[in-house]
Amino acid sequence: MVEAEAPRPARGAALERLPLLALAALSLIAGLWGGLLRVGVALPIPTGAVIADHGALMVCGFLGTLIAVERAVGLGRRWAYAAPVLTGAGSVSLLVGAPFWLASLAVVLGSGIFLAASLGVMARQRAIFTLTPALGALAWVVGNLQWCLGLPIFQLVLWWAAFLLWTIAGERLELSRVRRPPRSARLGFYSVAALLGVGLVVLHWNAGLGSQLSGAGLLAFALWLARYDLARRSVRQRGLPRFIAICLLSGFLWLGLSGALLIHFGPLAPGLPYDAILHAFFLGFVLSMIFGHAPIIFPAVLRVPIVYHPLLYLPLVVLHASVALRLAADLGDLLGLREWAGALHVVSIVLYAGTLLLTNRRGCPSIKATPTYSE
Predict the structure, then answer these.
(1) How many CB atoms lie within 10 A of CB 97?
(2) Nearest-CA neighbor of 91 among 73, 66, 117?
(3) Which pLDDT score, from 0 to 100, does residue 369 have?
(4) What is the DSSP annotation of 94-150?
(5) pLDDT grade, residue 318 (50/70/90)?
(6) In whole angstroms, what is the distance from residue 185 CA to residue 139 CA?
(7) Is the dihedral of CA 87, 277, 325, 358 positive or negative?
(8) Whole-model pTM?
(9) What b/e sequence results for 13-43 when a residue is b if at least 16 CB atoms lie within 10 Å of its CB, and e otherwise?
(10) What is the DSSP letter of 205?
(11) What is the C-alpha to C-alpha distance for residues 212 and 218, in angstroms, rounded to an integer?
(12) What DSSP letter does each residue of 32-97 carry, written as one string?
């Protein structure tokens, strides 16, 4: 959610956010580098953290920092920017050899401030669509605390997944108010959110049952979003609204598949099925959401117009092809294909960023995105 910011020089405020986005970008680059090394691509190893902390760099350093910047913009309070400063700096400090306890503690503190900012947004408007992202912020804090305490990633990664899912679902629920969903839809949303929450709690006492419930929560969220999200209507439009809708609807498919795989293969443990579940969620679902909303979020954060162009469909297709190839390689035990899939993951992200830069630099005639989530 991007709300009205407290009165400040808009351009100056946007420039102040660039270092925070640079921290997120560094984490992204390091995370992608580590991901390529993990699938066997022959690359130099600049630091062991790019491999060992691949997941934390992507979720906390990249995604978490970006979302924390957006939340600080929405709240309009300077103290809220301490969240992305700490999560971004803490994640990047892993790359320069900082002690793990210090870097992870910075991320925990940053996510705690992010939770406070989320509660601040909820205090302004008490509603389920502000409560849900606040629950996501709480899930991030819980996941980060477990990471700081040294728990294996496979034991805590569903808390990170819940952080992203509840954040996205809350924002999509806010948009669904335009259609005034029936009472049954609202009750359904409460139920699926509670199902995922129960699964996360049970996970620490009974890994098998907790995985089943969490997977059911992911699948139920996908079905709810596919049924009630505005994307079902906006996909009939043209230009940017249609592009966003296709990103969302395709992302919902990956979300549902990740839930189904978790139900089938759970509990989570290192291995190829684990790899398939994580990449269906974090790449197929989460990156589809980013691809769809970046042309709208960036103008709100940076105060610069973003031009939509149909070329953006190309990286989206490459993204989905790469995730499909990754899952085929994992589930079919075709290890050689994992290198190609990993390379295509990176190509899709580079293509997307390059397309945005190229079309805006050349001023391609198309639809200009405005800083709003309206579709």
Answers:
(1) 10
(2) 66
(3) 47
(4) GGGT--HHHHHHHHHHHHHHHHHHHHHHHHHS-SHHHHHHHHHHHHHHHHHHHHHTT
(5) very high
(6) 24
(7) negative
(8) 0.91
(9) bbeebeebbebbbbbbbbbbbbbbbebeeee
(10) T
(11) 10
(12) HHHHHHHTT-----S-THHHHTHHHIIIIIIIIHHHHHHHHHHHT-GGGGHHHHHHHHHHHHGGGT
Mean pLDDT for all residues in the chain: 88
Measure CA 229 to chain center: 18
The CA-to-CA distance between both ends of the chain, in Å, stands at 14
Q: Which helix (H) or strand (E) holds 368?
A: strand 367-369
Radius of gyration of the chain (CA): 19
Q: For 342, what's the count of Cα atoms within 13 Å in the CB-facing half-sphere?
A: 20
**pLDDT at residue 77 is higher than 70:** yes
Q: Which two tokens stand for residue 105?
A: 């503690």
CB 137 within 8 Å of CB 113: no
Element spanning 367, H or E: strand 367-369
Pick from 106, 175, 162: nearest CA to 134? 162
What integer pLDDT is reported at residue 182 of this predicted model? 78
Query: Nearest CA to 63 among 88, 86, 38, 89?
Result: 88
Query: What are phi and psi for residue 307, nearest 5 degrees?
Result: -95, 125
Count of beta carbons in the 10 Å neighbourhood of residue 125: 12
Over the stretch 277-316, which tens digit does the pLDDT of each residue have?
Answer: 999 999 999 999 999 988 888 777 777 777 788 999 999 9
